[in-house]
Design goal:
354 residues, binds nicotinamide-adenine-dinucleotide, binds thymidine-5'-diphosphate
Length: 354
């Protein structure tokens, strides 16, 4: 079996569902269930005994050691993290705890476990660390996309904490020989995306008749990848990646934020027109910028394409349509994630920007 951490979050839950659709190998899913973790994302696996869920912290060394000992996974895939830049600006503590200290504790537990394995189990073991393109910092409009050798220049507490975790993973390979793989992926979108991030926030706010808050001039560029394409890249890296190597993952889909908002509004105008016949774009409003806002991310995915033969299956056009349709089809999921602490976050992040 494999051990997935953070498998109740956006990408982790998509990965677990995807994994079990492609293989019969069981998944042990360790997730703390923070505000971003949601067992509803895993409803499709109810009653499926190939999926075992454990609520817990990657930083809990005893728990992780016991799970490794008991379940003897052949690989550990680390998705668990605090993942939202705006939250890292307003409260970095949890980012340091989970992304840095948590990853360190996880690595230590895995190192002990791996050290005790013998033969094939030892040689075939992998620790795959899921990271982000944000560790490379910000590009100007004329610079080439990030390759794996781009220097680390993280600018937010989130990206700095992810960068630190990447360095720890690297160090555990160089110092202890731990068989690690790292992926640095661009912005994902798709089902189960928590509506604090740009695309789901725009969809749910539009449908609720709320403002669509665009930070600054809206000309910041992100490189977007449909989430199941990220999942297939991770599967491929786990299968064939060279130990100690880093693989950038992206969809060659650079878009300014304002284009994203336009596209989402256009799809909603078509699929769920406003009752007054006006465009959802009328709800768009410019708000104060994010402090330290990175201007542009772009991933050069040439290495994973050339060396591992991976390619995304979705274009931005097919992926964004699927995504909007998913949110239209799942109002119950949206209502549930918006109850409780969600409204406190929205108030905290957007009140000061208006
Ligand atoms: P998410 O915030 O939706 O989910 C994170 C999950 O981790 C949640 O289920 C949460 O409960 C769990 N978690 C948090 N702290 C934990 C802890 N201490 N122990 C165990 N579980 C814990 O994040 P996501 O968007 O699914 O991102 C998953 C990973 O992919 C992260 O490492 C992130 O840095 C990386 N990544 C994300 C993107 C993106 O666009 N979302 C892009 C590239 C890389
Ligand atoms: P986000 O989804 O938070 O991802 P990241 O910051 O990790 O790239 O934001 C994507 C882009 O959208 C980023 O440039 C910030 C911008 N943005 C807005 O303009 N308004 C919003 O309400 C949010 C959440 C993000």
């Amino acid at each position: 079996m494999i051990l997935v951490t953070g498998g109740a979050g956006f990408i982790g839950s998509n990965f677990v569902i995807d994994w079990l659709a492609n293989s019969d190998e069981p998944v042990l899913n360790l997730d703390k269930l923070t505000y971003a973790g949601n067992l509803q994302n895993l409803n499709a696996l109810k009653g499926d005994d190939r999926h075992v869920f454990v609520q817990g912290d990657i930083g809990n060394a005893d728990l992780v050691a016991n799970l490794l000992h008991q379940h003897q996974p052949r690989s550990v895939l680390n998705f668990a993290a605090e993942s939202h830049v705006d939250r890292s600006i307003l409260g970095p503590d949890e980012f340091i705890q989970t992304n840095i200290v948590g990853t360190f504790r996880l690595l230590e537990a895995v190192r002990q476990y791996w050290g005790g394995l013998a033969g094939n189990a030892h040689d075939k073991f992998r620790f795959l660390h899921v990271s982000t393109d944000e560790v490379y910092g910000s590009l100007s409009s004329s610079e080439p996309a990030f390759t794996e050798t781009h220097r680390y220049e993280p600018n937010s507490p989130y990206s700095a904490s992810k960068a630190a975790s990447d360095h720890l993973v690297r160090a555990y390979h160089h110092t202890y020989g731990l068989p690690v793989l790292t992926t640095n992926c661009s912005n994902n979108y798709g089902p189960f995306h928590f509506p604090e991030k740009l695309i789901p926030l725009m969809i749910v706010n539009a449908l609720a008749g709320k403002p669509l808050p665009v930070y600054g001039d809206g000309m910041q560029v992100r490189d977007w990848l449909y989430v199941t394409d990220h999942c297939s890249a991770i599967r491929r890296v786990l299968e064939a990646g060279v130990l100690g190597e880093v693989y950038n993952v992206g969809g060659w889909n650079e878009k300014p934020n304002i284009d994203i908002v336009n596209t989402v509004c256009g799809l909603l105008n078509e699929l769920r027109p406003r009752t007054d016949g006006k465009s959802y774009l009328e709800q768009m409003t410019y708000v104060a910028d994010r402090p330290g806002h990175d201007r542009r991310y772009a991933i050069d995915a040439g290495k994973i394409e050339r060396e591992l033969g991976w390619k995304p299956a979705e274009t931005f056009e097919t992926g964004i349509r699927k995504t909007v349709l998913w949110y239209l089809d799942n109002p119950g999921w949206v209502a549930d994630v918006q109850s409780g602490a969600y409204s406190t976050w929205v108030e905290k992040n957007y009140m000061a920007r208006a």
